[in-house]
Amino acid sequence: MGRKPLDMTKLVKNLVDTDDINEKKRISKKIKDIAYKNGVYPASIHDFYIARGRKEYEGFTVPAVNIRSLTYDLARAMFRVAKRNNSAAFIFEIAKSEMGYTAQPPVEYSAVILAAAVKEGYEGPVFIQGDHFQANAKKYQEDSEKEIEVLKALIQDSINNGFYNIDIDSSTLVDLSKSSIKKQQFANYEVCAKLTQFIRRIQPRGINVSVGGEIGEVGQKNSTPEDLRAFMEGFNERLRKGLTGISKISVQTGTSHGGVVLPDGSIAQVKLDFETLKNLSEIARNEFGMAGAVQHGASTLPEDAFHKFAECEAAEVHLATHFQNMIFDSKHFPEQLRNKIYAWIKENLASENKEGQTEEQFIYKTRKKALGPFKKEIMALDESVRDAISKEIETKFEFLFKKLNTVNNADLVKKYTTLKRVISRKQDHGTEIVHDGEGDD
Question: What is residue 266's predicted lDDT score, i.e. its pLDDT?
């Protein structure tokens, strides 16, 4: 008799349910080993993006999706959409802040994504990204080296767990009070260069981790060509000669994370500056050899805006809050659990209820912070409920893949993407590092 196939869903449930970090690591390694055997590889999108910088392809925008809840179910939905559309140009990501409030550390998040790929019979590269690995401006001013060490530890942990795409966000350190644009960007490009050098030192042999920089904090003033050039000039001066730099640049063009919430809890329409996005993407490619500009905070935009990202040749667009909203607001989400979550918010996050806010605004802005405390309860929802919710969001994924034109590009992605099996091991001093092992290709 043959061996009974492993139940990926059960493995994921055990991974999510355990609070024992060593058990999480054990299950994560098991999932990763299964993934490799099934042709699923955590990968870097760097070489693919640099090929775009050389203008070897064009015409679509890569969606980078932050999954805050029902991660296994929604990842499965996205893999299904990718298979139907013959696409491999899409990214799963999670921000530094999201790892905290959704209780999804790198060891868990990456393994859940890979398990979803195996479950859906997807093969090839899987791009897992650390989003907004952000420097805290206040802490940086108090002790810059300590804040950089915090980011290095997070980067190390993430790369150890298959995050071969890292977005450094030191745009929080831009100081608009300075007299020149280059001085305004100084701390930003200095920290980005330091962390890029650290990434190049620890990345697995045979894999060039994709690194992104950011010139304008989302929700602040729109980025300009002068900002981009000043950042890149400083970054290239600070980066050690001979090291590979960044593959993309995040810019601000009028959006904000989560959207602007109106008193009734709905989202205000925003006017995104697509001309600036197009212009900055062209400069990034033509002058610096990068894939182009990256747009953040876009998931709550109106549906008629999404085709414009591909038209203006944006390299990547980040999408998060709308999928979280679809989970909470789904008719399939149990009302009893929703009420329980909202009661918890009112009791535990009351200090965040600002004067002048309506209850709808307060709930909308804070409900993401309940996803960690209620992660296991949401994961434990009946399979039929989770399937119904994920099918609704799968329809949205399908819409986005088509509007961003990230279809029929699987062969192109595989042409430029290195598939390497990475083996973890321990050094004598106890810190985990990674090195390349025997590849299947």
Answer: 55
> Quick check: is 18 in a domain?
yes
CB within 8 A of 82, min separation 6: which ones?
Answer: 88, 90, 122, 401, 410
pTM comes to 0.91
Residue 59, sorted as left (phi over 0), alpha (psi -120 to 50) or beta, turns out to be left
Which run of H or of E encompasses 433?
A: strand 432-436
Give the integer Cα–Cα distance in Å for 151 and 134.
Answer: 8
Spatial separation of the C-alpha atoms in residues 40 and 35, rounded to whole Å = 5
Residue type (1 letter), 78: M
> What gap in Å lies between CA 389 and CA 328, rounded to an integer?
10
3-state secondary structure at position 212: strand
Q: Is the Cβ–Cβ distance between 103 and 426 less than 8 Å?
A: no
CA distances for 291 relative to 108, 140, 190, 236, 248, angstroms: 29, 30, 21, 17, 5
Question: What's the confidence (pLDDT) of residue 44?
Answer: 98
318 lies in a domain?
yes
Name the nearest CA neighbour of 81 among 398, 327, 404. 398
Task: Give the model's pLDDT for residue 218.
Answer: 54
State which residues form the domain around 207.
8-335+375-436
At 431 the pLDDT is 35
367 located within any domain: no
The enclosing domain of 272 has a CATH number of: 3.20.20.70
Rounded CA gap, 367 and 50, in Å? 38
Give pLDDT < 50 ranges for the chain.
1-4, 219, 257-259, 262, 426-441
The backbone torsions φ and ψ at residue 133, rounded to the nearest 5 degrees and listed phi first, read -75, 90
- What b/e sequence results for 40-73 when a residue is b if at least 16 CB atoms lie within 10 Å of its CB, and e otherwise? bbbbbbbbbbbbbbeeeeeebbbbbbbbbbbbbb
